[in-house]
UniProtKB/TrEMBL annotation:
This is DUF6532 domain-containing protein. It comes from the Eukaryota. InterPro entries: DUF6532 (IPR045341). Residues 9-93 form the DUF6532 domain.
Length: 114
């Protein structure tokens, strides 16, 4: 369970997007804990797939929106598909324009979740 206090000191570093500690924690919790797909199929998660990062960002946005609004947000495709596309396009742009950085970021994240 995410703790709202984790977000109190959150900042966004434009030079290091998608590197906040909570992203790693969510990926571990969802895909690399216990019987997660990352444990069962490690080759599919090598380098952490960019669509997975887009999904995690959407989940974070949903959670933060719920915390700020003091209620639970329905995390569904109809609610967050536009946000997912936004993050997927942003990650694709980073991949195309900063390939070395993007590969390094996903490899570093992969090593961190193991």
């Amino acid at each position: 369970m995410l703790i709202p206090s984790l977000f109190q000191a959150c900042t966004f570093d434009k030079q290091q997007p998608f590197r906040h500690l909570i992203i790693k924690d969510l990926i571990i919790s969802q895909w690399f804990g216990g019987k997660g797909e990352g444990v069962k199929y490690p080759e599919a998660f090598k380098g952490i797939p960019l669509p997975l990062l887009a999904l995690v960002e959407c989940a974070l946005r949903s959670y933060i929106s719920g915390v700020k609004a003091s209620w639970t947000i329905n995390f569904s495709g109809s609610e967050f598909s536009i946000r997912y596309i936004f993050y997927a396009q942003k990650l694709d742009h980073l991949r195309k324009n900063s390939l070395t950085w993007c590969k390094g970021m996903t490899k570093e994240l992969y090593r961190a979740v193991w």
